[in-house]
User: Fold these one by one.
Assistant:
Number 1:
Amino acid sequence: MLHSASPLPEDPRTPAAAHRAGANDEETEVPVPVPLYQAKAEFFRMLGHPVRIRVLELLQDGPKPVRDLLAAIEVEPPNLSQQLAVLRRSGIVTATREGSTVVYELAGGDVAELMRAARRILTEMLAGQNELLAELRDTPQADPQADPRAASRAVAPAASRATAEAREGGAE
């Protein structure tokens, strides 16, 4: 006598099982590739420290020895070393030894582009917050061709009006 094998239960999360269960194809959710979004979140988390951001801004001008980074950032050497290690491990910066000096540089041009985009976005976000906007404008920008004042003039018209009104003491 032949025994028929009982089929294994089907994973109800598969599109085929959902379809057989009567779910509409348009309603079937496509699983989100979690590892990709986790990697993106980790990337932005890695950027989430003021010293790391400042290092990346300074390196937009080109390679810099650690002593120059220390002078510009004014943090304790162990703190800078720790933050540089995070950037180095992530692959966003590279380090080379030149004699007794360690020189850091951005691993690629996309990082500089990201920092410029972040500056533009932040300028727009701070348009109604004059004090922070003034600080952003007064902070030297690494890219000598970019003028932060020009970036603030490129703010959306509504944000520009809000800034002008705030300067004149008008509506918020």
Note: Strands lie at 64-65, 93-98, 101-106.
Number 2:
Amino acid sequence: MCHTHGQGIRPCSCFSPRPRGSRTQQKCNINLAKYSPLFRTIAVEAEHNRYCFSTMKAMVRALRVFAHSPESKLNLSTLYISVAPSPVDDDDDVGDDGAYDDGNAPKKDIPPYTFVNFFTSSSPVLFAIRDINCRFLKVIVSGSHLTGPKAIKERRLTLDRRIEMIINNAGTDDMWDNDDVVFHVREMKYLGTHKRLFQMGDHVLKLINEMTGEAKKDAPTEA
């Protein structure tokens, strides 16, 4: 489910997962051309028992609505992605989406917790996140469906993406366009941010391990 904060706009029905093979007849009920310049915070949250590929695709659809373009007037401060992982071996809850229930999937290719695969380097979710112009990305990991001695309710990972926003918004009127030093500094910062974004899966898994007491070190607050 996608929410836009600060403007009282209801969740958009077009972001809901669709039954397999079906097409939605609903049109987006948010007037993005009119309201997107007012958005400052966007939160995309997956239900804890919805973690299969169709849910991943639904999240990607929600994110792509806000992808950066030359015509975009979106001035987003923070993008929140919220998940509530659970152990893969305990995913036989009644009412879940059936992912991993067949028992035939190769264990070596399955992360030990649900939703970790949403953040691996090949995940379409990360590519959709990359295409959104925002100052900060915050991944919220809920411990509501995790077990362990620490019983941590929630932890967050924060990625500072301001350098990407500067580069995306610079355009042809950039006063530093011909400054080689500024270009080099920006490029190095951009590459570092891009690398950390596509390592997010490792950070999420590490965070979960620490929330369940499987790791001794304190969890990172920044990706």
Note: The helical segments are 32-35, 53-64, 124-130, 162-170, 180-197, 200-211.
Number 3:
Amino acid sequence: MSEFPKTPGVYLMKDATGRVLYVGKARDLRSRVSSYFQDSTDLLASRGPEIAHMASLVREIDFIECETEVDALLTENRLIKDVQPQYNERLKDDKTFPYLEITTRDDFPGVFVTRSPRPKGSKLYGPFTSAAGVRDAVNALQKVFKFRTCELDIREDDDKRRFFRPCLLHAINQCTAPCAAKISREDYSADIKRLIKLLNSKRSVLLRQMTREMQAASDAQDYETAGVLRDRIKAIQSLELSGSVEHDVQPEVFYIDPAVGLEKLGRLLNLPETPRIIEGIDIATLHGEESVGALVCFIDGKPLKNSYRRYRIKTVDGVDDYAMIREVIARRYKHAAGAEELFPDVILIDGGLGQLHAALEAFDRMQRAIELDGGEGVKPPMVVSLAKREELIYVQARSKPIRLSRNNEALRLLQQIRDEAHRFGQHYHHILRRKRTFDEDVKAGRRPPAGRRRRRSNEG
């Protein structure tokens, strides 16, 4: 149990065949998972016969560490909908479970926790396993986006609104009070669109959009609007809603047979032999700060964690993914390029065509440098990139990307490697951000929050 962190997250219980039996979330992963492995009689008494029987079938438990309980809640929801595990069966159709509902049909949409979702005119997220967890999430999100949670029928053409007295939520700056005409329909709709974008795991896109809006307001000397946007950007960053199951988690759940995936990947890439060693690379950064590169290694379709590497970016200032990829490639493969060690069979880059070209350019630069020194060097391996959302595979020397079916084993293997690189990189990135905050607190004479400790890291 020592492998499980004492942090929020989602756990996946699997049987001997690798089939997911149950998905759950926890505030403390170690505590929650250990509760399933008490004496069988105690488990039967405390959790019931169904859970006791499930626990007897469990042979493997995977976990996905999350930054916050809100993140864990959203991750659990998306994972259950995608996988539909046997012991979460009643979540599929049972409408007694809570949903997060946004009433988009209204002039001023409200956000609610409901067990009876309306069939039309609303945007739904769920079902969730914990009503309290959803309510906590709504409360946290309302502090950022100031949406209404009341059941009032608020219409734009109702002139009487201006005489209405808003509730306490407006007084504590947690609602913009459309009931009292304190905000226009256009501005309120913009906040709801930002909320939906965040819930759809487009946090980075939202932050870039709001940053542009803040700059535009500042340029127009609308400092009040710029200040509001600045505060909301900071609040969204503090939420850390980074989980995205559709893109970051599902390969770990679905992918079972690595041999089939490797064989299909070899044929797809026209390799002379079935690949055995694949390395995945990802870049993690936030506005160009604490930028890191992450490299994971898979052998025969299984992660080899003692070969993982992480690189604190040294030569790039600001946001430049391509330059960061070139730096990581150069640092990782400089010895292999000089024939001092072996290349992997395949290198996978997290990204699209631009990221692939950046990696290939780095190899080309290394090759030219070796030739200038009178050496011959070694031909680099197959390099591919995998773009999120579209899940398109870009391959060197091919003019068009490859689109595979969602269930293709080769695609699942690449997704698994890409997402493991993303997880590993994000973990290191957050360590560095916490360390910087700690150092800033100490330098300013502030007392860091209790329990915060520096964490040592091995850089590549």
Note: The chain has a mean pLDDT of 80.
Number 4:
Amino acid sequence: MAMAFRPDRESFPTVFSGSLAYALLAASGLFFLCVWLLIAPVPTYALDTPTGNTTDADSEASDANLAAMTDTLMVSARALTDAVSPSAAGMVTVVDLGRQAEGRDLAEILGSSAGFQVRRYGGLGYVAVPSLRGSSAAQIRIFVDGLPLNDAQSGSVDLSQLPSARFERAEIHRGLVPAGMGGAGGAGAVNLVTRDFSEGFSSEAFTGGMGARGGRLSWGVSNAEGDRSLLLMLHGRRADNEYEYLDNHQTYHVAEDDSLRIRKNAWFEEWGVWGRGFLPLGPATLKLTAGWFRKDGGRPGPTAALSPHATVASDRLDAGLRLELPWDLSLESAAARREQILYDPEREIDDGFGGDIRSVGQDMVMRLAWTPTWQRDADGGWLPTSLGLTTGVENRLQDYRLWYGSAQDPRRNRRTTSLFTGAPLSWAAGRLQVTPAWRYQFLRDDFPPLPALPWLPEEVGVRHDRHDVSPSLGVLFAVVPEKVVLEAHVGQSVRVPTWIELFGHRAGIDGNRDLQPEEINSADVAVFWAINHHMSARLTAFFLETAETIIFIQNSPGTSKARNIGASRNRGVELEGRANLPLDLVLTGNFTWQDPEDRGIQAHAFGHRLPYLSATELDVRLALRRGVWRPWLEIAARGEFYRDRISSELIRAPARAMLNLGCSRRLNDNLTLSAEVINLTDDRTYDIVRFPLPGRTWQMALRWHPQEGARP
């Protein structure tokens, strides 16, 4: 790989909010204080632990019993075959990231879940945009340990910017977002749970096609009692991403001028360090996390406007804490600073400006929650036998600055305050569970809109305030306890317009301060059936409608503007299941049928299928769980879809089926070698027009985990 120029960070002014800097430094300082306390001698006069506290084993048992009836996050890890867990709080699927093949990114892993779609703009490490049940990316809320990541600038999260090495599992919430996560809800959520404590050293390394290679090294230590622990991790990954693709030169109906080309300047390198620690503070428990992540890469551009010399560099520094207090109180706080520089020395990117662009975003969130549970005698008539409560307040501050060369745009900031309450009720020893929830959000923006083109004058700033309420209701009924369970959920939420939509962007986007928020209505009903100890399935019917849908519409040559265009709707059926077959074979998979439709006010698009959504999606995995050899086969099939709002046949994406074939070999109790062929069928269908995807490739990984032993 030919190394491209790196952005010259010294040429830009330094910006770092004092309050956020102090918060990050304080959190990091507390983290390293945890390390010192961990290795320091323990005094003989240690505080007594009140009887109200529980051990880790007690907590896991309690969470297992209450997972279906509480509106809090599941905290006990689940095997992949137990991913489906009925809950009155919402439709939840848990993905065990620790069991995935090394080197896979989050987009590839999550994209195989029911109702979860991913639009990719390139190969490994390149932009990947998520969708849940046909939602827009901005309607999906992404969390890390329950704290939000979506920013106010674009509203969406690029999955390629999240290092999968840090996470133990992903909790996918379709339809309803648990009230305990705060905010105004959305069409769904993904909560990424960071890795759990692991004693001693462990390491993983992988290599593969297109120059892919990387690894992870972690070290964990705890005291004799196990109530103080520290986990440190180093991780890195890179790829050249030079792959062959078919260039049709935008003449989709003429095959004679098609030619094979090599994708250039799609390389990336990323590395980071992350740590977490647990520390008892008398009757309370403190969890601290801190991390740094750096990613550099080429910016190849679309095939019609290549940028072979442009590069992008990004940094993220984050820290967080969670304080578990007596009386079922918890205090959470997180702060992050993100910096990104687009370096365009040859002015190859046609954005109306040309040159280097730098952005700095800062984010701070704090949440106080109270989660008590009351139990009573089951022989008490119609009153519930169990009542839970998840209530609290969340405050979030976001700050964003942008430079075009040395010229600085007005500083953008948003303050969001939300109140949330969920009340899980249970009757008949948990057979009937009802969870009503309600959340309120206040939002304030206060800065001037930006002109669509650099030479246009700025406008006067106007304060923008919003008040939104989002109610929801979930019901669960165990027809046959632990065998047949019915669940249903209904909710309303909003997606507030982003800064780009409201106030514009100098790269040709006019702001629209009259935009209304998207109103999201969702409902689903499901039946879970544990046929026997070897087989279970969940069948779900869902409905998702967005009123006041926001899209960008061209309003003049070279500029566009966000507008409310009416409604969009999706409805469908999801089937998830697993089966333990003879010969120690395990079959897991899901199937989705959906009918996404544009119901907006524009006649030319009304009634057409929403773009980028297939009518059918199928993901199946067959694996052998016996002996030292563990082969597996994965199938991902997608029906055809359109790439624009008017269902143009010329750019319609054909149906596709991708196969992955792999095998792992346990060399001893601590060491495992795996290899797989990815995209065995060499399918090269584009997701996005002019952004080609790679074909067949391979990967090999070596995993050393002494503390796991003979993991099944």
Note: DSSP finds four helices and 39 strands in the chain.
